[in-house]
Amino acid sequence: MEHVKQMSLAVVISLICMAPLLTYSPAQAETEEKGESSSVNLPLSDIRLFTDIYARIKKEYVEEVDDEQLLNGAIRGMMSSLDPHSVFLSADEFKELQIDTSGEFGGLGIEVGMENGVVRVIAPIEDTPADKAGVKAGDLIIKLDDTQVKGLTLNEAVKLMRGKRGTDILLTIAREGESAPIEITVRRDVIKVKSVRSRILEAGYGYLRISSFQSKTTRNVLNAMQRLKTSDPNLQGLILDLRNNPGGILTGAVGVSDLFLDDGKLIVYTKGRGSENSLKYTASTPDFTEGIPILVLINEGSASASEIVAGALQDHDRAIIMGKKSFGKGSVQTVLPLQDNNGIKLTTSRYYTPNGRSIQAEGIKPDILVETKVADGEEDKSFKFVRESDLAGHLEKNLHEKSLDDADTQELGQQIKTVTVSANDEGDAVLNEALNILKQLSAEKDVVSKE
After folding, report:
1. Which residue, of 39, 109, 160, 380, has the fewest CB within 10 Å?
2. What are the C-alpha distances in Å from 398 to residues 114, 391, 404?
3. Would the pLDDT of 231 be above 70?
4. Catalytic annotation, residues
5. What number is the average pLDDT over the span 395-409?
6. What are phi and psi of 419, to 5 degrees?
7. What is the pTM of this model?
8. CATH number of the domain enclosing 444
9. Model confidence at 201, in pLDDT bands (50, 70, 90)?
10. Cα separation of 272 and 351, whole Å?
11. Beta carbons within 10 angstroms of residue 222's beta carbon
């Protein structure tokens, strides 16, 4: 079976949403083509209630309603009642879902989710039209050209944001700290997400930024690491930046983890109701970095695939995790193709870190917690993220598995300490502090190796 696993706040679309962990399964379509169906006992009384309501709407609703509209609405309602990540995919949505994992698509270049009936910007993607136009994380999009967002589904809103390359769209935005809505014009373009960036911070210390996990991310990370080693053969430490990374393809997360772990180390495993949804992924190559100290940066916008990487490196004591507690999405969605090129994205399992920790609705807890403070008289410009636990109808953590409380962290032999940075510091204060800590780790390693 071909697996295309991916990790979101909502359906992954051409403007990229917080990506849910997905599995593509053609088996369901094959079964339907043969006329087979799984054995399901239908609750007849509830079916009668449904048909009764359907007939009443058809007969008595103030306006005539199309059958397809009613049935699609019923299907979407049934799916959305399960959890925030299970959705019905129309033929167009199903096609776009497959395209989006390639890392090249048309749109504005923003990671979005739906919140209280409006579109919340999780983060603009670097060097995209939205980023260049001034759209910011935390912005609430309340109007698209002349259309109010309130009352639209996320898919409907995204469809309006799409359009021919070179055309403009006017976004009306409610922004914290602004007394009135602001208007931003964004010119649509083909978005090519460069998911991996790297550079030498200073002699001996490299920086690797992964903005999302795509089909080519592992190869791109390997190439970036080779460039870093060529630029500085005496690399002593690495900062892996996963902040505001919404996730992506599972194979990308597994592949990246594999680069930093030794052969045979468990990376992640999933548990579902069937054996096909219970899988294990292990490292298959030696640690490419040869054990140099690694510091991983995460925050509330680090989700799904990002949490898999952070959790794997944390459980194996391969890296120090620094930042804020992550988003907390620990569920797996399977994409099942249906008739007429439609499909569903259905939550089928939870995933766990190597030590058996479920992060669902909890998140990865950093070893070094970063807190922000605002000096007297300064404006707090920090953005309050929405986490998995804030989403209506989210899956609860699996109480039969380990959680991420203080006791579990202490079991890993790690100690939480706090680093405080100003919310109004110029530049990337967290990165600067991370570099200082990485230097300390490298110095400690040198002392140990000499002994």
Report:
1. 39
2. 25, 17, 12
3. yes
4. 304, 315, 329
5. 54
6. -115, 125
7. 0.75
8. 3.90.226.10
9. very high
10. 9
11. 17
